[in-house]
Amino acid sequence: MAKQEENKRPWSIALTAGWNPQRVEKLLLLFRAEHKRSYEDEEAVTRCPVAGTTPTVVCVTGSFGPPSFSKSNVVSFESRYLFDKFAIAAIVSRNVSKNVTTVEVPVYLFGNDKVPWNGGVRLAWDSKDKDLKAGVFVGVPFSFF
Length: 145
Prior knowledge:
By secondary structure, this protein is mainly β. It has strands at residues 11-19, 27-40, 45-47, 60-62, 68-82, 87-95, 100-110, 118-126, 131-139.
């Protein structure tokens, strides 16, 4: 079994629109539509080819096959609200190509214009796994400069 490499170029394009209602200045509403084309490695497996009559078998673990092509169309709606001491968001996404709905609720517990990072907790659920997941995140705010 000889090692083979194959490179594919994934790409995506998205359109995002936002609205900040004048009456509720701490609320931001976002709509996003994205088309994505990607490639995923085949699942890694272990194979033990038997060659000749030697008692030793050498096993190889890896992806046996070319990357599989995947395309998806995802639409999402997001609502963000800034409270005095924390911020919360609710994101509902629908992958219409794979019929999967995802709900995420990040709660930003710390971070402001005086510190160069933010963080909090995140709850997530998707209709494929039907699993509730929780996590902690720390990151830096997005900036062009």
